[in-house]
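User: I'm putting together a teaching handout on how multi-component assemblies are represented. Below are the sequence lines for each component of a complex, exactly as they appear in our records. Could you produce the 3D structure of the whole assembly as structure tokens, so the students can see both representations side by side? Please keep the chain order the same as the input.
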Amino acid sequence: MKSPGDDFTEDIALLQKLKDRGLSRRDFMKFCAAMAATLALPASFAGKIAEAVEKAKRPSLVWLEFQDCAGNTEALLRATKPTITELVLDILSIDYHETIMAPAGHQAEKSLEDVVNNQKGKYIAVVEGSIPMADNGVYCCIGGKSAIEIARKVCGNAMATIAVGTCAAFGGLPAAKPNPTGAVSVKEAVPGITLLNLPGCPANVENITATIVHFLTFGKLPATDELGRPYFAHGKRIHDNCERRAHFDAGQFVRAWGDEGHRKGWCLYEMGCKGPEAFYNCPTVKYNAGTSWPVQAGHGCIACAVPNFWDTMTPFYKRLPNVPGFGVENTADKIGAGVAGVVAAGIAAHRIARAVKGKDESKDK
Ligand code: SF4
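Assistant: Of course. Below is the structure of the complete assembly, with chains in the same order as your input.
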């Protein structure tokens, strides 16, 4: 029977590669357990992941960069040191990545052409950055070809495409008003392909790894929401998993950078935190090998994985006019009446706290 990794062209199993890098069986199993947790699977799935990864062959991957800041590439390179996640990414057969590959010029272009021509339907394409459509795509050209031309050819022939970062997933900063280059997402530029959106500014590298592990284990991309984002990473609201949530519910808010509340780790809602509107696994997976995430570090969430966040979530330091999602949350089949009650209590506490402080809410507005 065909197993998920059979379509990949490399003939060296991943586990052997990991062993060659000095990885112990124990570390490998810990990695599989962590991937099961990131993918929001029961712990018992660690064995299935281990079995699949042991047998899988090195996936061939090409990474395209268009209108971007290379932030996702930076995340890929710097996220972990040295962890198994890094090893797994390291052992992917990354056949083309302009920023990190050794070849340049015609040699580099040949590497890309070789993958597209010789591995049609067998490679994974990762796209970072938006694609400019205005004026025949002249605003982003590589090797004499426009981004749209490259994306259509490379993504159109891939087994699957991952749009990594908010620019590739939704247009991001280049598409913010007035969008002078006509920047669009991968989905808009190359409709109809097998695509997963992994937004974020940058996307969390743990989610990139988990997506690839899911692909190796189940032979398909993870289930997604209506925005094409995987549920495992975007199924839960930041506000509901935030370690400052108890302070929100208690009406304890930071009111100025560096004030007593800020030093004590209180809620950042009044400082513009968009956590109540953002669905992402930042609070549980965190960044830099699980060290921290923006809210833990003292900065509010800017909802960077939300479409058009540069236009709709700014100014970043102005608080949301209301805690959104009330109508959504009180549907029992989605999150549960309990959460709605907690949010209601939070709002009430918030108002009480403001009243006690003698602040006139209308002034904020
Ligand atoms: S408003 Fe922001 S800081 Fe406060 S609990 Fe929600 S996500 Fe956390």
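A couple of points students might notice: The pocket of iron/sulfur cluster is lined by residues 238-239, 242, 244-245, 248, 267-269, 273, 275-276, 295, 300-301 (CB under 6 Å). DSSP finds 20 helices and nine strands in the chain.
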